[in-house]
Amino acid sequence: MTVRIEKVDLPGIGVRNDLVTESGSRLGVVSFRDGERELAIYDADDPDACRFSVPITEDEAEALADMFGASVAITRLTKLSDETDGLYTEKIKVGAGSPYAGKTLGDTKMRTRTHVSIVAILRNRKVLASPTPDERLDIGDIIVAVGTRGGLDAAMKLIDHGPA
Amino acid sequence: MHDTTIILIEVGALLFGMSLLGRLASRIGISPIPFYLVAGLVFGSGGLLPLDASQEFFEVGSEIGVILLLALLGLEYSADELLQGLRRSRIAGLLDFALNALPGAAFALLLGWGPVGAVALGGICWVTSSGVVAKLLRDLGRVGNRETPVILSVLVIEDLAMAFYLPILSALVVGVSLAQGAVTVAIAVGVVVLILFLALRFGHIVSRLFTPDLAEPLVLGVLGLTMLVAGLAEEVNVSAAVGAFLVGIALSGRVAHSAQEVLSPLRDLFAAVFFVFFGLATDATKLPSMLVPGILLALLTMATKVATGYIAARRAGIGIPGRWRAGFALTVRGEFSIVIAGLVSGAAAPQLAPLAAVYVLTTIITGTILARVPDTRRFKALVRRRAAAAASRG
After folding, report:
1. CA B63: distance to chain centroid?
2. Radius of gyration (C-alpha) of chain A in whole angstroms
3. pLDDT digit string (tens) for B202-261?
4. With CB atoms 3.0 to 4.6 Å apart as the test, which of A155, B68, B266, B271 could cross-link to A114 if both were Cys?
């Protein structure tokens, strides 16, 4: 599916990018010359007027983009598990007490021990897709894993307490 | 007391007072320009408390104020935006001229002010204040609105038109005979086209003269170049303001952005001085006689501005509430009208400056209030009811 984005110049102010969603709402992002940005949500009764305009800081914009990015990655994963019976995805958090905090992904030997695949790591609201075995795990990382129910349970125990 | 000491005291007291007025203005939610004008009128010739010692300071300061106002306006626009505005909104621009400048000119002729007065008053009524409107749009949270590009394109085209209008006006002010006047105007327009061409074509080379990273050389350099070009422009009757505007346009990219940052505080100071000086130099004793004509003219041309915005927005495919918003947002006249009135000063009629003061005061105060009208529930309901009535009739 393609999304149409309309770009409008605002002389002396900046640029506005608009997007009409499938449900018919209009969203706009105003980028000011001085680097500020605003998220505009338009009025349903009066489609020319923005009902809300929310100033968004640089960090917030990045966080929002990541949130949307992460949610897109996860919905794609859940779609996958719907189609293949018996396979599930699970988000496993690396807690402070985990023996693997600070160790690499390869150290967990998760695939050999539990037959579960790690498809991504979510770290600081960023998605690391298909991480390599030498990727170091930090406290707070979220491991996105795909496997059977039993395998995923074993994987959670493994991350929390180490090998049985 | 020594003369300079008195200047320090007068200027200091006035600036301090203006800062309080500025805070008051922002509390009420209107531009501080009317307050500065009134402060100038009170302390000026024929006012309640004339200041004499600092007259010279304010005179020079106000000249720098005009230059900085226009240079920063030029910095806000890139050359591409101006050309695009010209291409896309020619019709809106012509309409704007016909609906606003012509009534103003006719009004001057009715008052018997002759051709120079007519051209000047036409200009005063023509130009919406870009500064006040841009601030208003931000304050009202309308930057994202779809009618906003229409409003901005009208502002762009007016500002560009000023680059040609101001030299013509200053030529007329200086010009003696009709033939001589025509030659002066031709030269002035030629010079503007030449500088504009150079600014568009070689702007990046001009920008390379400066470094955006060192604030001090940047302030000195940009201010210096602007004043230099402004002075040279004035020398060939192109008006200093236009020279400054063109320098602003020529600068682009990061240099323009940094220059805007470092020059803004200077602009704020000297623009305030400019408005006060206009008040100081205006004969306050003539003010009462211009009160009624000024307010009448303001109401008339605010109505025509609303029509301009409405039609321009309709042409751009904006819905009815948006058209009203565009119209009501454009009614404020400000810095340019004062620049024009200051340029002509006594050349047309002694009443022009007091009339312009009354006019600008009226449009800023009522215009700022009017701009908020389309957001009120009552106005929205009225528009909806009229739309419903039209639908049931049709």
Report:
1. 14
2. 21
3. 877 888 888 888 888 899 999 999 999 999 888 877 788 888 988 888 888 788 888 988
4. A155
DSSP single-letter state for residue A108: G
- Which of A48, A50, A52, A53 is the best mutation test for B, with the most CBs of B within 10 A? A48
Q: Which helix (H) or strand (E) holds A38?
A: strand A37-42
DSSP labels, B224-268: HHHHHHHHHHHHTTS-HHHHHHHHHHH--HHHHHHHHHHHHHHHH
Residue B388: inside a domain, yes or no? no
Q: Which residue segment(s) compose the domain that B86 sits in? A: 3-382
- Residue B376 within a domain: yes
- Please indicate whether, in this complex, the C-beta atoms of A50 and B142 are within 8 angstroms of each other: yes
| Cβ-contact B137, B162 below 8 angstroms | no
In this complex, which of B152, B257, B380 lies closest to A10 when CB atoms are compared?
B152
Report the domain count for chain B. Answer: 1
Q: What is the pLDDT of residue A105?
A: 87
Cβ contacts from A onto B, under 8 A:
74
Measure CB to CB from residue A46 to each of B149, B152, B321 and give the nearest one: B321
Tokens 């930090």 map to which residue?
A138
Which chain B positions have a beta carbon within 8 Å of A32's beta carbon?
143
Reported ipTM? 0.72
Instruction: Read off the pLDDT band of A76 (50, 70, 90).
Output: low
Q: Which residue of B has its CA nearest to A10?
A: B149
Task: Give chain B positions within 8 Å (CB) of A42.
Answer: 144, 146
A38/B319 Cβ within 8 A:
no
Q: Give domain limits for chain A.
A: 4-56, 63-161
Q: Is A128 helix (H, G, I), strand (E, B) or coil?
A: strand
Q: A63-161, superfamily in CATH? A: Regulator of K+ conductance, C-terminal domain (3.30.70.1450)
Interface of B with A in 189-248 (CB under 8 A): none
Are B146 and A34 an interchain contact pair (Cβ–Cβ within 8 Å)?
Answer: no
Nearest to B85 among A11, A48, A49 (CB): A11
User: Which residues of chain A approach chain B closer than 8 Å at the C-beta?
Assistant: 8-13, 16, 28, 30, 32-34, 38, 40, 42, 46-50, 53
Instruction: Identify the closest residue of chain B to A42 by CA–CA distance.
Output: B145
Contacts with B387 from chain A: Cβ below 8 Å:
none
**B386 contacts: CB under 8 Å, gap ≥ 6:** none
Q: B298 Cβ partners below 8 Å, 6+ apart?
A: B358, B359, B362, B363, B366
Domain CATH number, residue B278: 1.20.1530.20
Instruction: Give the residue carrying structure tokens 């049709």.
Output: B394
B125 falls within a domain: yes
The per-residue pLDDT for range B74-94, each reduced to its tens digit, is 888 877 778 887 888 888 999
pTM for the model stands at 0.78
What was the pLDDT predicted at B220?
Answer: 92
